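Reopening this one. Same input as before:
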Amino acid sequence: MKAIVLYLFLMSFFINSCAASDCAKSNQAKKTEPNYHSMVTKLAEEKYAGFFTLQENETKEFYLVTSRSKSATETAIKFFIYEKESELIILEDFIPLGDVKWNGKFTVNVQKFPGTVKLNETGTDRSGYVFNVKTKQKI
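Same output, byte for byte:
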């Protein structure tokens, strides 16, 4: 009976010590990993003076940062795409009127709308592009 209690005590001590060493390793890894969210926020504040939105893609590898300037005459969108791995802005653009959003895991849909809407016009004249963040190419 004493042997069983001693065995259980030693096993629990061994398991707790292993778990504690793993926790220390994961805490060190978290401390050394750069805080990308704060880096991108600081960069966006410098560029857009605090009026912006951050959106990560599905894989959490890229940020889409947009800033909409609303005035009486136009709704312009400034945006950039930031890559975490290289810590660089891979695309920066300005659209006088339109929309920018994630279209998939690695694609951003950039739509440009016409400035003047004509009465009784059935077709919508939209232009723009799709940007692939992996290949860094406009499609």
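So the earlier flakiness isn't reproducible anymore. For the record, The radius of gyration is 25 Å.
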